[in-house]
């Protein structure tokens, strides 16, 4: 099934993109720190465009891609100065000499193990992105790993917003390789009646040492950050900053 249809995309845009905006703030500080010349920032799995809006307001040219057409339509409205398209991050040809590539909000967890293998594995994927970066360019992304399913491996959570509510059941596999999110969205229709939309997301889990090894093999200098500015990493969540050598 397709992920992030119209309803869930709108809910995500309303209540779940704060971390992407925090990631954009962290990236901007890093670009200033290393005095990167202005170049394109490519946002893979860009979501509804909250980080793209922050980056374009700071004067950076932004290209955003996402597999969800609903997300892309929202992003076009939120960040009209960016260039958006529907595309798969694993096959999208990132333009050369990019100043930065981002994958905020666990985008890299979503491709299946089979899709990653078909693309050549993590190190091959990171190598292609390194080749697209300008010298000193930045690859910044976050992932979830084993332990993100909580102490018992499963839990249920909920959230409400303007005109919607959401209940999600999280279940981490016993082998700690995948995590399943069963998401039910409720939107009021009339009186006490609600319309329900359900999506099931199965994502891959990665240990940080696996990611660091793949980044190193791809020729990138990488570190694990404590999180983004104002959004520290929780248990089982990891934030990576990698740079192409100058």
Automatic annotation (TrEMBL):
Keywords: Methyltransferase, Transferase. One of its GO terms (biological process) is methylation. Residues 41-137 form the Methyltransferase domain. GO terms for molecular function: methyltransferase activity. It comes from Lacibacterium aquatile. It comes from the Bacteria. Transmembrane segments: none annotated. This is Class I SAM-dependent methyltransferase. Pfam families: Methyltransf_25.
């Amino acid at each position: 099934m397709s992920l992030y249809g119209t309803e869930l995309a709108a809910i995500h845009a309303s209540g779940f993109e704060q971390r992407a905006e925090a990631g954009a703030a962290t990236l901007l500080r890093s670009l200033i720190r290393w005095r990167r010349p202005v170049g394109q920032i490519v946002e893979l799995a860009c979501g509804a465009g909250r980080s793209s809006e922050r980056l374009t307001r700071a004067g950076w040219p932004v290209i955003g891609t996402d597999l969800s057409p609903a997300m892309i339509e929202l992003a076009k409205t939120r960040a009209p100065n960016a260039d958006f398209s529907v595309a798969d991050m694993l096959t999208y040809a990132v333009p050369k000499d990019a100043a930065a590539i981002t994958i905020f909000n666990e985008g890299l967890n979503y491709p299946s193990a089979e899709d990653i293998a078909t693309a050549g594995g993590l190190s091959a994927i990171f190598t292609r992105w390194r080749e697209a970066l300008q010298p000193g360019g930045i690859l910044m992304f976050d992932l979830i790993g084993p332990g993100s399913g909580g102490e018992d491996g499963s839990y249920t959570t909920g959230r409400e917003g303007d005109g919607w509510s959401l209940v999600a059941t999280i279940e981490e596999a016993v082998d700690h390789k995948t995590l399943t999110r069963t998401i039910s969205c409720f939107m009021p229709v009339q009186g006490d009646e609600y319309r329900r939309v359900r999506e099931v997301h199965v994502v891959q889990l990665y240990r940080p040492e696996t990611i660091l090894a793949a980044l190193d093999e791809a020729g990138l200098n990488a570190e694990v950050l404590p999180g983004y500015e104002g959004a520290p990493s929780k248990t089982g969540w990891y934030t990576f900053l990698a740079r192409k050598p100058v």
